[in-house]
Amino acid sequence: MKELYLAGGCFWGLQKFIDQFDGVTLTEVGYANGPAEWEGKQPSYEDVCRNSGHAETVKVVYDESKLSTAGLLDFYFMVIDPLSVNKQGHDRGIQYRTGIYYTDPSDLDEIREVYDRETVKAGQPLAVELMPLENFYSAEEYHQKYLDKNPGGYCHIPSSYFNIQ
Question: Quick check: is 165 in a domain?
Fold first, then answer.
């Protein structure tokens, strides 16, 4: 199993989008790559919304024999604006920045290949962070699989993208 952490605006929609793909075995929403200790505790959603410095992020565990890292990232780039700084759709703030955070340095070559291809396609540098995962804190339970629990919930990703496979 492989693991990758993807920040792409509001994590509700990104989680629902990624869950549909064969090979994805687990997703979990949380807060990544902010201060390691937030006021001596795990950051809450309210902390993140008040500029704690963490990004809304989806932890993705996947079977690379069914879904390659490049394939996962191709899907990711389908639903983000890679040039947008600290916003996706109507969501604005540092917590909505985009990022690819890896835990295994041996994945970097494949990640970089997709990242560089997307940079060429965009014709300018991407606003997507590409860096090792520094930390990840699981979000509160009510955020997990939020759009499954609340089908009418807001999402910057069009609902037609939730059933493309």
Answer: no
Give me the CATH number covering residue 99: 3.30.1060.10
Q: Tokens in use for 73?
A: 């990232």
Domain range enclosing 45: 2-160
- pLDDT digit string, tens, across residues 13-62: 999 999 999 999 999 999 999 987 766 788 999 999 999 999 999 999 99
Active site residues: 10
State the Cα–Cα distance between residues 86 and 83, nearest whole angstrom.
10
3-class SS of residue 48: helix
* pTM greater than 0.90: yes
**Nearest-10 Cα torsion for 122, 127, 128, 134:** 160
